Amino acid sequence: MASFAFALMTLGFPAVAEKPHVLFILADDYGWGNMGVHRRDAGSSPEEIQGQAEVQTPNIDALIDAGVLLDRHYTYKICSPTRSSIQSGRLAVHVNPINSAVTSQNYDDPVSGYAGIPRNMTGIAEKLRDAGYRTHLVGKWDAGMATPEHTPKGRGYETWYGYYQHANDYWHKSTVFFATGEVDACLNRMKDLSMHNSSYSGPVRNATSLSAACEEDEESDPACYEEYLFKERVLEIIRNHDVSSPLFLFYSFHLIHTPLQAPKAWLHKIDDMVKAAGGKPFDDQNRRLYAAMTLYMDAAIGEAVEALKKKDMYDNTLIIFTSDNGGPIYEPGAASNHPLRGSKYNDWEGGVRTNAFVSGGFIPAERRGKKFEGIVNVADWYGTLTELAGVDMEDKKAEAANGWLKQKGLPLLHPVDSVPQWKNIINDKNGRPDAMHLSSKAVLMWPYKLVTGKQPLSAWVGPNYPNCSTVKSIDDHNGPLPAPDDVKIFGESMPLAPTPEEVDRQTWTIDCGAGCLVNVRDDPTEHVNLAADPKYASILSKMQETLKEMNKDLFNPDRGLDRVAACDVAIEQDRTFGPFVHAEDFYSPAPEKDFGQRFRDQVLSMTLHTLNSDKVKEPFVSALKKMGTKAFQNMNTDKCLVPSREAVSEQYTQFTV
Ligand SMILES: *[C@@H]1O[C@H](CO)[C@@H](O)[C@H](O)[C@H]1NC(C)=O
Ligand SMILES: *[C@@H]1O[C@H](CO)[C@@H](O)[C@H](O)[C@H]1NC(C)=O
Ligand SMILES: *[C@@H]1O[C@H](CO)[C@@H](O)[C@H](O)[C@H]1NC(C)=O
Ligand SMILES: *[C@@H]1O[C@H](CO)[C@@H](O)[C@H](O)[C@H]1NC(C)=O
């Protein structure tokens, strides 16, 4: 290696770069239209000007100006699949195309019979550990937790501080219904905030961190807000990092996922910024909350970058930023993908083409400030990072498991199908000219995209969304409600409207049937369906054929049912979620519980066992479904802030179980 570096130097190349530090930033449910750079070329209508005043992301914009905007970066349409894809280096369709309950288990498949990434796959952090990196994860995981191998620790992160589920409450760190969108096997009684390091593994036991004591604080950065805790952890990792090794820091925000909760001071801050930019006050509660949360994320990113500079690490740092999917335009998701079509939960650009960029001092000077229009899949970071780190991207562990899986007749694990993209980004070359499998319903074959079947939330939203008409629309039962699979009770979908036709109407669902065909290069907002145009007949049928072929490779093993055993383990661990299969040696010893606590734990455990028993569960679930459907139809998930408007509900109703 040394002589190779010397050879390059004598040839007039700079010395072989050290392995870069990597700061991987993953935002949650971040809408296309909620990032400042995507508002820059907006028109000059009053609404667009208002939109520009509201969307404030100065730190992100500066990183993009100093880096490369990834204009065609694709993910899966929902979170857990995208997160599984990043960590495993497989397209989401080849590792985990569904959001399943973290408590799922299929007793017959000890490799893939759980939520998230199959147990025997090698994570990107494991690979980077092999290459000499120090590896840390902060924030949301959502790629499985059933066994110790499924956790961040099992996937190669030396430390982690965060949560396992899709979401939790930003203040209490609990799994209440309005935070997770499901009634889980543990009746939403568990907390979800855990950590591990070299000497400890288990729930976060710091009472301050778990409290909502600071919720009413007017101070600018209340210390019990979840994102504050994450940010402090990130800054601590950077400050304490021994720069003789490269750092891999995965900063996985909860922001800007529901529940929409922001510290008060940040609501005032965004109000002031909008005013200073010449805008009118927000007329919609959720749009204001979403903007305040976005501002918080942006500022936290700014602080992390500052810390890297202070530590003299920035010049050799590669920053990668993406959202896990497009913004949710249903209420109370409150994102805007303007001017793109669609939302989280569908295959339109608004659902799968995400805000993304690379930045940091590692970006060659001549590429800074450029836009890269080559296709990148979120699975490609695995290959890109292993390539930069100088290790191969083969997954020997998965290969080894396949021998056994084949014997048992169980689904085989896909090899890593990540495309290393660094050279493509640097040389401005499209690394994915071939068909790319987006989901079982969609395929991209640049510049065409085929979208099939039912697609919820197939709408375009304007520059100031959601707004008072959205509130009225919800009040009038015209949607947009969350996508049909978003809300679950004990793993079963809960219908949000009384009939399937009503569900479709209120979720703004359209049916593409055998295929809508769009040209996403010439028509990036997907207004023109080319499917009926005879000129495109052969492209259409070719893509339909390709999708059919590709779907034969869809990885969708039986992940089993919600298991109350997961609740028992959680109850033991301070009522906090964590691994529940072969997890005996995973947890650090817990403090002794007093009699009262043991008694309350016993009662809760017995209650959960009863509710999860065959006899009780069915009637219980169907009763909850009926109640839930009704409640959803009458829920005020947003609020118009224009005082003159009547019929505004006073309370932001929260449907808690
Ligand atoms: C690991 O975490 C525990 C619990 O928070 C803490 O007490 C301990 O100091 C940490 N150890 C290291 C090495 O950071
Ligand atoms: C508990 O968390 C708070 C912040 O939430 C922090 O200031 C304090 O140092 C922590 N205590 C311990 C013992 O780690
Ligand atoms: C999968 O991983 C687990 C845990 O490391 C191991 O015990 C098991 O043997 C592996 N299974 C296969 C089929 O390789
Ligand atoms: C307000 O919301 C509606 C949908 O509820 C949307 O169609 C419209 O474009 C939005 N208006 C603006 C200015 O964004």
From TrEMBL:
<dbReference type="GO" id="GO:0046872">
    <property type="term" value="F:metal ion binding"/>
</dbReference>
<dbReference type="InterPro" id="IPR000917">
    <property type="entry name" value="Sulfatase_N"/>
</dbReference>
<dbReference type="Pfam" id="PF00884">
    <property type="entry name" value="Sulfatase"/>
</dbReference>
<protein>
    <submittedName>
        <fullName>Arylsulfatase B</fullName>
    </submittedName>
</protein>
<keyword id="KW-0325">Glycoprotein</keyword>
<keyword id="KW-0479">Metal-binding</keyword>
<dbReference type="InterPro" id="IPR017850">
    <property type="entry name" value="Alkaline_phosphatase_core_sf"/>
</dbReference>
<feature type="signal peptide">
    <location>
        <begin position="1"/>
        <end position="17"/>
    </location>
</feature>
<dbReference type="GO" id="GO:0008484">
    <property type="term" value="F:sulfuric ester hydrolase activity"/>
</dbReference>
<feature type="domain" description="Sulfatase N-terminal">
    <location>
        <begin position="20"/>
        <end position="391"/>
    </location>
</feature>
<dbReference type="InterPro" id="IPR047115">
    <property type="entry name" value="ARSB"/>
</dbReference>
<keyword id="KW-0106">Calcium</keyword>
<keyword id="KW-0732">Signal</keyword>
